[in-house]
């Protein structure tokens, strides 16, 4: 399924990118980490949906997600 000639999986990648970038505009660190976690999970889904799947995208974003989660829970 395409929208404007771009496959929906690629749109998911753009959404993940926009979410992570938006997280860095947050002044509150906890809010930044929460929004960044959402972006990381979107990137993990994107990595799994790529053909072939992208282990570097999946591993990196899972690691960042768990680091963010650690600091969210710790606070």
From TrEMBL:
Keywords: Membrane, Transmembrane, Transmembrane helix. It comes from the Bacteria. The chain crosses the membrane at residues 6-25, 32-50, 56-73. This is Uroporphyrinogen decarboxylase.
């Amino acid at each position: 399924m395409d929208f404007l000639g771009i496959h929906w999986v690629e749109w998911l990648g753009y959404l993940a990118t926009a979410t992570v970038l938006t997280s860095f505009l947050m002044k509150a660190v906890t809010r930044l980490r929460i929004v960044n976690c959402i972006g990381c999970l979107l990137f993990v889904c994107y990595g799994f949906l790529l053909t072939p799947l992208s282990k570097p995208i999946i591993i990196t974003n899972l690691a960042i997600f768990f680091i963010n989660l650690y600091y969210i829970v710790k606070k």
